[in-house]
């Protein structure tokens, strides 16, 4: 009985949390996409600053990681493929798993580590130093002022980063292809492109947009609900990372299943 | 005739509270407060730590929602208005936070300009002039390009006042204006509050526990204890009050900590409490 009550309690807590994320994300979406048509101009400068921070500055580390992931994928799939004498299919394997799955996912995880945590820390500190309260007393909506530019930056930059990550992954795979599978570089890239359908790329990009929304919502929600004290900021940051990773994986599962059943028909 | 109008104006209530109650979850913090803040006066809300004075201030500026009761400001009941209406009223209010609450990512000038850029259609050169003027009024002329982290505690507080005044508010709120400042700087902030009152006839509400500062700047005072009003009145009325709690606060008498012999022994030996909650201070706050 106790156990049932506990499970019920956690489920309702989880749903309530999800509800507050959806409400935050929809308000941010309102201030980003609807309010500009009602005479409240978008905070373009802040959004660009955020986009630089979230996107451009993440490029070096993201490139390195996805290059390695591409290489690892090539090695792993070649291990199995060579048993069937099908080692040339390594290009297909890398291209498809990068664009459909690992490109968006790895990008999301890098962005969570760099930006999701930073959102929580920044907004959390502002909560502790009463800056959020100050915004409210100045009749400035914190979501409009703080969350909306981040939201816009993430929704635009995550797909861009994902495309970049896909390319770097394929490039990583090509290193194996060229040195171990007898491909010429141009031939490898050609084979990768031939293996891909537009559908593969688009599903990956759709996922990455949803990941962007989820990461922004969690990071900002954790920041805004920070309690008093520096310790709480640390806790909010940790929670933002853990919850974001979980949520991204969950969203990934839902969308992958969805795309699977859609493409079946 | 003009005289009479003036005196009428003097006694018009700027803010009036009726039976205001505020809860944090289950716990009631303010137990039905009723008082008025008159136009052009400086009202000091006094109280010890945990008395509910900060909650009261947060409720007055709309950061906390009352659980019941009314707060009337400019003919509107803050407890029952939409957020759009609340924001309209907030544009007529300024609030100076305890730590300044300046935005660390913006310069001092941008901080002061923020409400103007958000809420007015003023041209950029006009905004710059207003910013310079406001900073000059608080004695920070020439600090526009400084970052808040480059300012001292007292300067931060002054900059925060400049930002609070950016929209020429009718009511100015101060949360612990002299907290964390040395006596000389704190006196400077008190002086600033007096100057603002004299120059702009603003209605000012100050929350503090600093007695010297309170008696310097106040027209009237409210003493709050455990979420209730203990006394309200002019400086003189407060000074001559015989209410034990007022006397205790004004004469700075420490809270007696009464412990029974057995409990005292227990406290010294750090033993486990023998009977329930016997370690609890009795007669404490």
How would you characterize the overall build of this protein?
- The complex is a heterodimer of chains A (265) and B (285).
- Chain A is mostly helical and 265 residues long.
- Chain A has one domain.
- In chain A, helix 2 runs parallel beside helix 6 and helix 8 runs antiparallel to helix 9.
- Chain A starts with a helix and ends with a helix.
- The model of chain A has no long low-confidence stretch (mean pLDDT 93).
- Chain B is an alpha/beta fold.
- Chain B has a domain of 26 residues.
- In chain B, 38% of the residues lie in helices and 23% in strands.
- Chain B has 11 helices and 10 strands.
- In chain B, strand 7, helix 7 and strand 8 form a beta-alpha-beta unit.
- The relative contact order of chain B is 0.14.
- At the A-B interface, helix 5 of A face helix 3, strand 6 and helix 4 of B.
In short:
The complex is a heterodimer of chains A (265) and B (285). Chain A has 265 residues and is an all-alpha fold.
Summary tags:
heterodimer, A: 265 residues, mainly alpha, 0% strand, globular, B: 285 residues, alpha/beta, 6-stranded mixed beta sheet, disordered C terminus
Describe the sheet with the most strands of chain A: none
Question: Total strand count of chain A, please?
Answer: 0
The share of residues in extended strands of chain B comes to 15-25%
Unreliable segments of 5+ consecutive residues of chain A: none
What is the string of SSEs of chain A from the N terminus onward? HHHHHHHHH
- Assembly annotation: heterodimer
**Quick check: average pLDDT of chain A?**
93
Question: Major sheet of chain B: size, sense and barrel closure?
Answer: 6 strands, mixed
* Rg of chain A, alpha carbons: 21 Å
Strand content of chain A is: under 5%
């Amino acid at each position: 009985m106790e156990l049932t009550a506990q499970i019920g309690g956690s489920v309702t807590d989880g749903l309530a949390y999800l509800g507050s994320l959806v409400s935050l994300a929809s308000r941010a979406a309102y201030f980003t996409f609807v309010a500009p048509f009602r005479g409240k101009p978008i905070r373009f400068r802040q959004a660009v600053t955020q986009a630089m921070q979230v996107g451009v500055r993440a490029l070096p580390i993201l490139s390195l990681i996805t290059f390695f992931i591409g290489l690892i994928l090539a090695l792993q799939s070649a291990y199995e493929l060579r048993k069937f004498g099908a080692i040339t299919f390594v290009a297909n394997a890398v291209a498809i798993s990068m664009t459909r799955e690992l490109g968006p996912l790895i990008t999301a995880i890098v962005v969570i580590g760099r930006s999701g945590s930073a959102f929580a820390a920044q907004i959390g500190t502002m909560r502790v130093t009463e800056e959020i309260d100050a915004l409210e007393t100045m009749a400035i909506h914190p979501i409009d002022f703080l969350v909306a530019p981040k939201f816009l930056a993430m929704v635009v930059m995550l797909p861009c980063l994902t495309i970049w990550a896909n390319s770097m992954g394929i490039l990583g795979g090509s290193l194996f292809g060229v040195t171990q599978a007898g491909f010429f570089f141009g031939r490898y890239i050609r084979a990768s492109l031939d293996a891909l359908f537009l559908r593969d790329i688009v599903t990956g990009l759709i996922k990455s947009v949803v990941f962007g929304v989820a990461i922004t919502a969690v990071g900002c929600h954790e920041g805004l609900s920070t309690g008093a004290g520096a310790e709480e900021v640390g806790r909010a940051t940790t929670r933002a990372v853990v919850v974001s990773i979980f949520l991204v994986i969950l969203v990934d599962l839902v969308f992958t299943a969805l795309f699977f059943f859609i493409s079946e028909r | 005739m003009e005289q009479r109008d003036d005196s009428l104006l003097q006694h018009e209530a700027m803010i009036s509270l009726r039976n205001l109650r505020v809860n944090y979850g289950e716990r009631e913090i303010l137990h039905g407060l009723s008082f008025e803040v008159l136009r052009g006066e400086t009202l000091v809300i006094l109280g010890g730590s945990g008395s509910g004075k900060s909650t009261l201030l947060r409720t007055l500026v709309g950061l906390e929602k009352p659980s019941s009761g009314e707060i009337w400001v400019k003919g509107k009941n803050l407890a029952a208005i939409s957020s759009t209406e609340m924001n309209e009223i907030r544009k007529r209010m300024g609030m100076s936070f305890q730590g300044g609450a300046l935005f660390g990512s913006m310069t001092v000038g941008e901080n002061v300009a923020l409400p103007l850029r958000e809420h007015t259609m003023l041209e950029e050169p006009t905004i710059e002039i207003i910013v310079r003027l406001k900073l000059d009024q608080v004695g920070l002329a020439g600090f526009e390009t400084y970052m808040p982290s480059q300012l001292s505690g007292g300067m931060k507080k002054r900059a925060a006042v400049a930002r609070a005044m950016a929209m020429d508010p009718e009511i100015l709120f101060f949360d612990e204006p002299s907290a964390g400042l040395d006596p000389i700087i704190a006196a400077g902030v008190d002086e600033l509050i007096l100057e603002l009152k004299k120059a702009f006839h603003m209605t000012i509400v100050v929350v503090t526990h600093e007695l010297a500062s309170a008696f310097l700047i106040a027209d009237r005072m409210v003493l709050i204890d455990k979420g209730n009003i203990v006394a309200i009145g002019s400086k003189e009325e407060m000074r001559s009050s015989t209410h034990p709690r007022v006397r205790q606060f004004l004469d700075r008498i420490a809270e007696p900590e009464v412990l029974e012999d057995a409990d005292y022994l227990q406290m010294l030996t750090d033993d486990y409490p023998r009977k329930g909650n016997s370690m609890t201070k009795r007669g404490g706050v």
